[in-house]
Amino acid sequence: MAINKRHPLALFAILFVALGTTGVAYATVSGSTTPKVAAKSETQVEQGKQLFLEGCSSCHGLAAQGASDGPSLIGVGAASVDFQVATGRMPLAAPGVQAMPNMSSYTDEETAALAAYIATLGAGPAIPTEEMLDTTNAELALGGELFRTNCAQCHGASGSGGALSEGRYAPSLMDSSAKHLYEAMVSGPQAMPVFADSTISVEEKQHIIAYVAELQSEKSFGGHSLGRLGPVSEGLFIFVAGLGVLVIAAVWIGAKAK
Amino acid sequence: MNELEHPTGDPYGAKDGKDLVSGITVFPMEPHVPRKADIDPKAAIRAERQVATMFGLSSLMVILFVVAFILVPADLLIDAPIIGVVNANHLAIGFTFGMAILLIGLGAIHWAKKLMPDEEVIQERHALTSSNEERAAVQSSLQRGAAESGFRERKIIRRSLLGALALFPVPLIVLLRDLGPLPGTRLRETIWDEGIHLVTDATYKKIKASDIPIGGLINAVPENLLEVEHEEHNLNQRGKASIIIVRMDPADIVSQQGEAWDYQGVLAFSKICTHLGCPTSLYQQRTHHLLCPCHQSTFDLADSGNVVFGPAARRMPQLAITVDAEGYLVAQSGFNEPVGPSFWERG
């Protein structure tokens, strides 16, 4: 009786040994020829594929080919994935005209895995390297001119965003990182057009990013910036609040004393 | 107090609010209600103290202003509640100085309302018309003046005066010539012409068609723009010739303003809104809609630039483009229709 009775964990121990042996044997036979980095990125792609199937495929399709609820992701590139996922726009919180930025649902590692997987599906813009985002030699004045020519019409001269049609809007750039600015330009998320490196060069993008960083660092000396939208919000505020106070004062002055 | 100062009855013998003599409406006044400070000496003293407190606080604010000006560092930023990050020095001197003058005003009004005499009075005014005698005298004096001037008898003087008066406005009309010269064809033409390269705005680089991704947008101008601007010393040509270049999947193009005016899905449109001439480049690549930020006119670039929303009455003019031997975008010709807002002679 006692001899026949197996320890409850014995099954797991056998499985562990069997899997381990198979794995080591497989690695010895096939793994020696592939370099370490490739092996790592292969597992990254594999991890990305798993994450994609779990979290994204219900809308974008099992092969990322697109479906009624989500566009095809073939050829959108790693930059697009990194921008959409890292800024929390994807996975979409709720269907609507435009995805809202949010807390990211994935860790940096998982985001990188997803990006690596989508990048294997078709050629698209890659995530910019540190070197591409280096703005030490950027020219602010030229960046300002490029920003006003290409960005300000939607994002506003102060980069604080603006309205588009049918409920869409150009978001504020005040909290955007250099990497996400770059990725948005090369991937053209949502309503935004694509400003590829072939039309606005890497250096020109650096000028623009440096200029946006300058806008972000500008302090609002006059107190509340009212959205930095300029005369519209400021005018509305002073019209409502200022005239309101004047009306109250006039009523008080005109009222008979008791 | 006599009856005239408190016409709660009817001092003019008025009935139904009408003065029987002059026909002028007399508005009845509410009965006089004395204020607390008028009957209660304690309330009067309280009001007096309130007014004095306001004036006193005003003096205090002036002292605080000087203190703040000297002591609060000019470069200190603080995060004040509601109003946000603000320069502490500006906030302090602005608040104290503003309060100083506000408290003087509040005190003065409070004083006037609570303590200064409180009586309703009627200001009497005579009728506005002159008497019949005065009117007749003015009339006869005018007639005598006309007769004595000899205006009727001295025909030559009368006629030359009338002639001079008739001609007097002529210089004013001649001066209108300075509003011209008429624009001629300038409203209809831009510097775009056959074979002119499309170059990027601000950086003035030629554009390879193959470099533009689908969904891409480029703000562009004609390559000879800088040259022309240098000659003309103004930005008028830029105001007319600015364009946007977009690329879409050729399958998405529903219609164009001319046959084969695109190059493999690359389309060029005027950037100047046909409503009031705002620069219009809010291109939404998924819907191919182009939105004008001024009055929300929306043009469908996939469908001949037709207006789909807003006050614009005309479609966005399309520029026919193709590529040169090296693949750079060039214009097939100038614009086929005037760009920008409608004008009187356009019809």
What is this structure, in a nutshell?
Chain A is mainly α. Helix content of chain A is 52%, strand content 2%.
Describe the protein's architecture and organization:
The complex is a heterodimer of chains A (258) and B (347). Chain A is mostly helical. Chain A has two domains: 38-127, Cytochrome Bc1 Complex, Chain D, domain 2 (Orthogonal Bundle); 128-218, Cytochrome c-like domain (Cytochrome Bc1 Complex, Chain D, domain 2, Orthogonal Bundle). Helix content of chain A is 52%, strand content 2%. Chain A has a two-stranded antiparallel ribbon. In chain B, a hairpin with a 5-residue loop joins strand 12 and strand 13. In chain B, strands 3-4-5-6-11 form a five-stranded antiparallel sheet. Chain B has a four-stranded antiparallel sheet with strand order 7-8-9-10, with no helix packed on it. Chain B is flat, with a radius of gyration of 38 Å. Chain B contains eight helices and 13 strands. The longest helix of chain B has 31 residues, at 41-71. Chain B folds into three domains: 36-114; 132-179; 198-346, Rieske Iron-sulfur Protein (3-layer Sandwich). Chain B is of the alpha+beta class and 347 residues long. The interface between A and B is large, with 36 and 48 residues.
